[in-house]
Write a structure and sequence with these properties.
Chain lengths: 190, 190
DNA sequence: CGTGGAGTTGAATACGATCAACACCGGTGG
DNA sequence: CCACCGGTGTTGATCGTATTCAACTCCACG
């Protein structure tokens, strides 16, 4: 198992030692990604989800007008996948690619089941993760529905100051749901 | 247990008979709600989530300008709650009230734990439900980010034709993130 | 060098919000 | 039975925020 992932599990699963974790039989493969390399294409079968060991990925959709909308940024120690596509073996609704050169640990559709078999603690962990993503997405939906572009940008700066540094502006714009031009104008007022 | 809830579990949990379900010790209480009766106030401690036996509830937030934004409609056989508030014993981010006169089955913060103890099938069921809500919320976020008000309204009609009949227009507008006036104008073009 | 991606700026445009007035309808009480 | 009322929905005029399209700068990288 990738050391970064082992460390992650150690931190989130009290009941395991490094040795126990190393002994786990999980269907995981490590892979390096170039900048802009695509892990998954919207519309194609979803083969893998990923744990990001380092670098940064994003999930996004491309609408009919060709505009990209970012759903999630995934820097180190985040998980990213098209859950629905993986679980139900349906075409992915999301594309996933690397914003920076990255190293990821890939898992497939059986991963969740196999983890459950090895320990119910994993299931608990993944339930919590899902719950947190859900809460985050809820907050985001509310903010898109109720706040102006400027407020949303400031919220983003508050919430992810590191990402705001790291990411190109047009990616942030695609996350906030505004054009790069609008974001540029917002930033001018500072 | 409320017969509507028992029927629901029977449908979603293959392994249980009615007798077994009736024997389960779950902390559930049934309650009737008047139209507009508030089950939970944004900012106050989250005591209960609800399974809707009949009628229709909604969860929503009120922003600083006093505008309401609907997160979810919950007609018969839907679950509705402020997950985060319940689980982490934090103030609720959402308000929940009854759009129509309703009958609900309330559950508290321990519900999930107690269900797990009685059978892992419950955990599985709730994981799936959570996954589905997540997917729905994702689709909605994408549609708010990428589609016009008109497109979103048509999507809503497609997805929830029944609800569109049942609900007052201004509730639908609050769900779509537009004003009642705008929705009225959109409907004129038909 | 020079080429292309990222960011900025300006002018015109579009979409939805706001504000105000009014129509419609169901219920309540005189 | 009718008058009144509040809640819901409609319509019009105006306004504001963000988009679009185009041009231009800057800079990293070949």
């Amino acid at each position: 198992m990738h050391p970064q992932l082992r460390a992650y599990f150690r931190q989130h699963l009290a009941a395991f030692t490094d040795t126990q974790l190393a002994a786990l039989q999980l269907p995981l493969t490590t892979r390096k990604l170039q900048r802009h390399e695509v892990l998954q294409q919207q519309g194609e079968p979803a083969h893998y989800g990923a744990f990001v060991a380092h670098g940064c990925l994003r999930s996004y959709v491309t609408d009919d007008k060709g505009k990209e909308h970012v759903l999630q940024f995934a820097p180190e120690n985040w998980w990213i996948s098209d859950q629905q596509g993986l679980v139900y073996h349906r075409p992915a609704m999301l594309s996933i690619d690397a914003i920076e050169e990255a190293e990821v640990v890939l898992f497939d559709a059986n991963f969740y089941q196999q983890m459950r078999q090895q320990s119910p603690e994993f299931q608990q962990l993944f339930y919590l993760l899902l719950q947190n993503s859900m809460a985050a997405m809820q907050r985001r939906l509310i903010s898109v529905l109720s706040a102006t572009a400027e407020q949303r940008y400031h919220d983003f700066l508050q919430l992810y100051p590191m990402l705001a540094q790291r990411l190109p502006q047009y990616q942030i714009a695609a996350y906030l749901g505004i054009t790069p031009e609008s974001l540029s104008r917002i930033r001018r007022e500072l």
